Amino acid sequence: MRYSLLLLAASLAAQTNATFEDMPAVRITNGKLELKVLQRGSSFAELLMTGDARRVNPLWEPIRLAREAGSKPTFGASIGHFVCVDGFGGVSREEAAAGLTGHGEAHIQQFEIVSQSAGMVEMRATLPVVQETLTRTIKMIPGENVVYVSSKLESLLGFDRPTFWAEHATIGSPFLEAGVTAVDMPAEKSQTRPYVANGRGMPHRLPPGRDFTWPNAPTVDGKQVNVRIAPTPTNSGDHTTSLMDRSRKYAFVTALNPGKRLIFGYVFRQEEFPWVQSWEFYPENGKLARGLEFSTQPYDVPRREAASLGTMFGAPTYRWLPAKSAIGSRFLFFFAETPEGMMHVDDVVLESGKIVISDTTAKRSLTLAASGGL
Q1: Is pLDDT at 12 greater than 90 in this prediction?
Q2: Which residue of 182, 259, 311, 364 is surrounded by the most CB atoms within 10 Å?
Q3: What is the mean pLDDT of residues 183-188?
């Protein structure tokens, strides 16, 4: 028995012997994709197609981008796709004094590896201030360009409470190219984030607190701009939110680089994540980042503000976490090559073990095996 346990421990140690920017990581693969998952935060740091000699990672790499720009990283524990739970945004003075951090606790916790195989890892962490346990299972199925993620958030306390949850998915350069990479989603209603101009940071190209129909947003000079694509030249920072089409069971958000013929995207349940936030970070040096953040709330704001809002556009701004109980979420993401000439994503349909991605204008489509479903 003791010998078997030692073999298991040695096996797990060997499987987790990966790093990303000198941080401990778990590497999983299925012959089509390779994914590095950080043990800190269970964050998705690097996603590669095994047959892509270019080794393009669509996920945001702030450490590398800062290094290339000759500067120091300024985004703390944020990297690639990280989870914001329980909390998405800043904290109150009282919460800060109690040790609660912005964007929740999960993304800064060291996750325990519960189980692992070549194409799967299950990770768990306890969130000490909010008294919750988060378990994440990330898996691939051989031969598919898809990663499946299921999560369980369990309350250790004896009362119901609102909970705040975002999957802070973020793409970055060089996959994100100004004037090239386009973001698409089935938005029902959209709004520019309210703000008070203070002259700090990058200029805004969008005015505060204005409703619009995706993707044509108002500009500060009274015109309109299509926000699917990062502008050229770059030198702006803005934030919009979009309510996903409530007639759909599954919503999606995609990022398409037609020049590289690559597409990256997510499919998730609309009832679990009604909102997609587009955080735009477009500095002049071209080291770009853009959020594809699907969440329970329209903006990353303190808990009191999100809870007090209650609804926006008739949709909820938080989820309930019952006493001594658990809630969950499931989503998938994909990364694949596209047909020549695909420029736009009109729809992403998940059914019958397949994902069908359509560009009706160019009469192009891409079908991916997705036997795991949601």
Answers
A1: no
A2: 182
A3: 98
Instruction: Name the token pair of 293.
Output: 């953040």
CA distance 75 to 201: 14
Residue 163 tokens read as 């909970």
> How many of the other CB atoms lie within 10 Å of CB of 175?
23
Question: Could you give the 3-state DSSP secondary structure of residue 73?
Answer: coil
Handedness of CA 93, 162, 101, 200 (dihedral sign): negative
Boundaries of every domain in the chain: 57-342
Whole-number pLDDT of residue 19: 95
Cβ proximity of 80 and 46 under 8 Å? yes
Least confident of 1-15, 40-54, 120-134, 316-330: 1-15
pTM for the predicted model, two decimal places? 0.94
Q: What are phi and psi of 97, to 5 degrees?
A: -65, -30
**C-alpha–C-alpha distance, residues 122 and 173, integer Å:** 29
Instruction: Tell me if 306 sits within 8 A of 319, measured CB to CB.
Output: no
Residue 16: pLDDT band (50, 70, 90) is low
Q: How far apart are CA 292 and CA 298, in angstroms?
A: 12
Phi first, then psi, for residue 350 (nearest 5°) are -110, 115
* Residue 201 in tokens: 């940071």
The Cα–Cα gap between 267 and 256 comes to: 15
- pLDDT digit string (tens) for 33-84? 999 999 999 999 999 999 899 999 999 999 999 999 999 888 988 999 999 9
Q: Could you tell me the pLDDT band of residue 175, with boundaries at 50, 70 and 90?
A: very high
Closest CA to 270 of 357, 354, 186, 213: 186
Instruction: Give CA–CA dist 173/234, Å, rounded.
Output: 13
The dihedrals phi and psi of 275, each to the nearest 5 degrees, come to -120, 145
What stretch of H or E contains 368? Answer: strand 364-369
CATH class of 57-342: mainly beta
Distance CA 55, CA 349 (A): 27
CB atoms within 10 A of CB 225: 18
Residue 256 sits at the vertex; the CA angle it makes with 253 and 261, to the nearest 5 degrees, is 150
